[in-house]
């Protein structure tokens, strides 16, 4: 019996050794952790339960039968993060470059199926040379099996991808279909075709990092959500992030003890809005002063800074925040900010996370570039997302809410549940000067100034909208947290369903 146990332990050791000491040293030499070391950081100590440790590839070509490593380049299983169950796969770059074989894919699919069945998040740690070249089409089939599951899991369980090494070719499409992507600076990259192919086809010379590194994807392309300095920082951030999310669309948002008083008044908010309407202020201040302990996990902080999105908590329960940022492009809605916020609103709605929207928006961004690149269709994404969302929606207009952007930003008319305005709110079809120049075209500058003042006095306040019931209450800025907390309590049992349909047709 003892001998059998020893054999089992030897097999386990062989699997744990991955691609061997030399390749592990290579991995460390690049500043990267191994697949298993990463899971040690990501999961609660001792919580990881591995599956399929002895799975081997089934490739008979190119001398592969002589090169068998148990586990076949991916470590899969489940564990806990702060006590909550998650399913994980972690590609092992030391085994055939973490490349995806038929069996490697089967391992990933097995835990995806389990995560779906039990309703728990899936976290993928990607570090792979792509399709296992020796296996050809069997590997492509494996990818497609994973893709199919990504799609079926979308909106059912949260899916988070951590890109911690190469992720190239068609392999990028699995992370692309997950809900959020974190990347590690300098050691990870994602592209459909690499620098060499780009050079051949378009004659553009570009480095891997410039083409598809963490900075590129979190600033320019918005393919990824957040970039971190190294493996450890990324994995610890993933732990914090998962804490905000419900386990599945069948579960409520997690609740944690909250010591921050729900009715904490923030007097400093009463002077947040500068006297001059064109002067910016930092919307982050309102967000952090509203949330429990100022704890805000911002998503896509480096892309489309004119809108802020992310998660926080009120009375210990997760909320999604969407806020215009007057510090960047005056908080205008443009193509990138509309797309960024629309996907976030849809995620929150899919997982029953209430949405709190802070509005200070001068409208949609004018310009040939915006029009030719489809601001109509992209702006419609945000409008569509807010309009279809059935989760609790609380909106606070702090200053400007002009034109179509007023409608879009979770207005009463898009089934906003509680629509508040600060006394400084200006809800109008457009800014006073622009409005007067249209209505009184050709008048003298003195007359324009006079009419502008008249227009401002009439419309640069929240009371016209409030008199029509479009604003439920004009609230004191210092009481914003208390109002939102009370609102969320009221809305906890909100029930609202959209008409039956196979699915909608959001303007993609
Ligand atoms: C099999 C692979 C592999 C792959 C790497 N290896 N990629 N084995 N299939 N796709 C192996 C190497 O042979 C090597 O084995 C080990 O992994 C480490 O690779 P190195 O090249 O030494 O590492 P590095 O210099 O860091 O370069 C990493 C890399 C490079 C940039 C990822 O390996 C590379 O370009 N690989 C090929 C990438 C590729 O073309 N993949 C197919 C893309 S098409 P030893 O034994 O020496 O340690 C695709 C289609 C998916 O993925 C479609 C889905 C729909």
Offer a few descriptive terms.
2 domains; eight-stranded mixed β-sheet; 37% helix; 19 helices; binds hexanoyl-coenzyme A; single chain; alpha/beta; 2-enoyl-CoA Hydratase, Chain A, domain 1; seven-stranded mixed β-sheet; 508 residues
**Bound small molecules, which ones?**
hexanoyl-coenzyme A
Instruction: Give the amount of beta strand, in percent.
Output: 15-25%
Tally of domains: 2
Radius of gyration: 26 Å
Low-confidence stretches: none
Number-wise, the strands total 17
Helix count, DSSP H or I runs of 4 or more residues? 19
What is the CATH class of the largest domain? Alpha Beta
The coarse overall form would be elongated
Average pLDDT, to the nearest integer? 96
The CATH homologous superfamily of the largest domain is named 2-enoyl-CoA Hydratase, Chain A, domain 1
Name the structural class. alpha/beta
Explain the overall architecture.
It is elongated, with a radius of gyration of 26 Å. It folds into two domains: 2-242, 2-enoyl-CoA Hydratase, Chain A, domain 1 (Alpha-Beta Complex); 267-425 and 461-493, 2-enoyl-CoA Hydratase, Chain A, domain 1 (Alpha-Beta Complex), CATH 3.90.226. With 508 residues, it is an alpha/beta fold. It has helices at residues 2-16, 21-29, 35-42, 102-118, 137-153, 173-176, 195-202, 208-212, 214-219, 231-242, 283-290, 335-350, 368-372, 375-388, 403-408, 432-439, 445-459, 463-467, 480-491; strands at 49-51, 74-81, 84-91, 122-126, 159-163, 166-168, 180-184, 189-191, 226-228, 297-299, 307-314, 317-324, 355-361, 393-402, 418-421, 426-428, 473-474. Bound molecules: hexanoyl-coenzyme A. Hexanoyl-coenzyme A is lined by residues 23, 96-97, 99, 129-133, 140, 143, 166, 168-171.
């Amino acid at each position: 019996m003892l001998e059998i146990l020893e054999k089992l332990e030897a097999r386990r050791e062989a699997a744990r050794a991955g691609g061997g000491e030399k390749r592990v040293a290579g991995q460390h030499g690049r500043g990267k952790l191994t697949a298993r070391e990463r899971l040690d950081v990501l999961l609660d100590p001792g919580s990881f339960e591995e599956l399929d440790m002895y799975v081997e590839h089934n490739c008979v070509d190119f001398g592969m039968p002589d090169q068998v490593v148990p586990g076949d380049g991916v470590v899969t299983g489940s564990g806990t993060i702060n006590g909550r169950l998650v399913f994980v796969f972690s590609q092992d770059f030391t085994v055939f470059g973490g490349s995806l074989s038929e069996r490697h894919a089967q391992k990933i699919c097995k835990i995806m199926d389990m995560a779906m069945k039990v309703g728990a998040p899936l976290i993928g740690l990607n570090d792979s040379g792509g399709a296992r070249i020796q296996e050809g089409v069997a590997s492509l089939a494996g990818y497609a099996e994973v893709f199919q599951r990504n799609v079926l899991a979308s909106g059912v369980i949260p899916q988070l991808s951590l890109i911690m090494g190469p992720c190239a070719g068609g392999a990028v499409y699995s992370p692309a279909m997950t809900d959020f992507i974190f990347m590690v600076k300098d050691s990870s990259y994602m592209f459909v075709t690499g620098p060499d192919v780009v050079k051949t086809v378009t004659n553009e010379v570009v480095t891997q990092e410039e083409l598809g590194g963490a900075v590129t994807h979190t600033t320019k392309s918005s393919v990824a959500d957040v970039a971190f300095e190294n493996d450890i920082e990324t994995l610890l951030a993933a732990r914090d992030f998962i804490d905000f999310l419900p386990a599945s669309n069948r579960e409520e948002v997690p609740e944690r003890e909250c010591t921050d008083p729900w009715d904490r008044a923030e007097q400093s908010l009463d002077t947040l809005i500068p006297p001059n309407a064109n002067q910016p202020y930092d919307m982050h201040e309102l967000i952090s002063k509203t949330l429990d302990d100022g704890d805000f996990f911002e998503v896509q902080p480096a892309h489309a800074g004119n809108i802020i999105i992310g998660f926080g908590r009120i009375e210990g329960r997760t909320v999604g925040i969407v806020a215009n940022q007057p510090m960047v492009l005056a908080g205008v809605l443009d193509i990138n900010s509309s797309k960024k916020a629309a996907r976030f609103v849809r995620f929150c709605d899919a997982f029953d996370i209430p949405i709190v929207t802070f509005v200070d928006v001068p409208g949609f961004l004018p310009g040939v570039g915006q029009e030719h690149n489809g601001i109509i269709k992209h702006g419609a994404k945000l409008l569509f997302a807010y309009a279809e969302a059935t989760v609790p929606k609380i909106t606070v207009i702090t200053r400007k809410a002009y034109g179509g952007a007023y409608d879009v930003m979770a207005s009463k008319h898009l089934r906003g549940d509680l629509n508040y305005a600060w006394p400084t709110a200006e809800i109008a079809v457009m800014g006073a000067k622009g409005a007067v120049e249209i209505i009184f075209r050709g008048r003298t500058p003195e007359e324009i100034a006079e009419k502008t003042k008249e227009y401002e006095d009439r419309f640069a306040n929240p009371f016209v909208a409030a008199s029509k019931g479009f604003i439920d209450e004009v609230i004191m800025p210092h009481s914003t947290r208390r109002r939102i907390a009370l609102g969320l309590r009221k809305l906890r049992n909100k029930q609202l369903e959209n008409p039956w349909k196979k699915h909608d047709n959001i303007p993609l």
